[in-house]
Amino acid sequence: xxxxxxxxxxxxxxxxxxxxxxxxxxxxxxxxxxxxxxxxxxxxxxxxxxxxxxxxxxxxxxxxxxxxxxxxxxxxxxxxxxxxxxxxxxxxxxxxxxxxxxxxxxxxxxxxxxxxxxxxxxxxxxxxxxxxxxxxxxxxxxxxxxxxxxxxxxxxxxxxxxxxxxxxxxxxxxxxxxxxxxxxxxxxxxxxxxxxxxxxxxxxxxxxxxxxxxxxxxxxxxxxxxxxxxxxxxxxxxxxxxxxxxxxxxxxxxxxxxxxxxxxxxxxxxxxxxxxxxxxxxxxxxxxxxxxxxxxxxxxxxxxxxxxxxxxxxxxxxxxxxxxxxxxxxxxxxxxxxxxxxxxxxxxxxxxxxxxxxxxxxxxxxxxxxxxxxxxxxxxxxxxxxxxx
Length: 389
Ligand code: NAD
Ligand code: GLY
Known about the structure:
Elements: H1 2-12, E1 26-30, E2 37-42, E3 60-66, H2 69-81, E4 87-93, H3 102-114, E5 122-127, H4 129-141, E6 148-152, H5 155-161, E7 166-171, E8 174-181, E9 186-190, H6 199-216, H7 218-232, H8 236-256, H9 271-281, H10 288-305, H11 311-323, H12 338-347, E10 359-364, E11 367-371, H13 375-385
Nicotinamide-adenine-dinucleotide is lined by residues 66, 68-69, 72, 95, 97, 100, 127-131, 133, 153-154, 156-157, 160-161, 164, 166, 176, 193, 196-197, 201, 204, 288-289.
């Protein structure tokens, strides 16, 4: 399986863009039979009516955004959508991971019902992963399913969360525990919107880009290492290549395994430790990408202690995560029994089976697998990777 994945991804690879290629709209197709769709990547996409041509027809569109993103970009989107829809509504949610919950989800249903929206209404998610995940879940469940479009405005959402149809809200006992697989009609990655993204959020997005290297494409890891400073500086050419290559890899993996029966789980590299950090610290204290960045270091350390990879690859990943501006040392979640607290939190993971925790490990450079690990070894990894109390 891994050989096929690596070989196929090499074959699919396209040359990085040169500056003269911009602004060009690039297209990555995600092949899922009747649920297939395109990811558009480029500049000046958001405000162009043509970007939305060919989407399902309806009398009403509802833009779902939040109190940070709506003031920046909703008017542009609203104007472009008016060419296609008679009525274009907006619901603006409170901003933050802490609002990825039932009461906030309800605000989307309130807007739909108060405006008599029918089952053809198209939802447009304008925001980061939180808005995208919640809008997708609302679209999956309103009248048992209405179409939706992802317009990701964070780097993290452009390279990961908007693609592949995972939608969810959090539960106080676990992250992304309530949700559905539900594919969007289109994903529109306008690189221009990244200009207003705070540097900390840009770094969080880099975590999900780095992830694709060790699990699937070591050439991409080399490229990221060579361009990490350009990416952090918001260089449009570097960002365009990083978004496109990430989407190609994710589209391929999701195309093979839409509902995570097997292969797709490799996309959760770093997430088992990362989700424990996020929920253990309280949602929003650590950004999702920060948890994933640090979690990848911990998962690499685990892979090394399982005898799968050498210390040089762990050091390489740790250095890159650090250069991306992300934490590499795990927080203390419980001064009395830190490893125990991590273990308890990691049991509330969708990969866990009958309470046994499963980890995504690097089984060799550019290839990942899902497996269990002896508790003593996992505890030793946590002790080694977390700040001393
Ligand atoms: P986010 O949605 O909270 O956005 C980060 C911050 O940036 C927010 O304050 C937001 O308002 C702001 N923002 C967004 N776009 C902006 C812009 N262009 N300019 C200025 N500010 C902007 O966080 P995120 O990192 O985008 O997403 C994290 C979420 O995504 C988590 O809930 C995570 O679980 C989820 N996720 C889902 C998947 C999936 O497959 N569905 C994959 C990865 C992550
Ligand atoms: N972010 C992991 C996945 O989409 O499967």
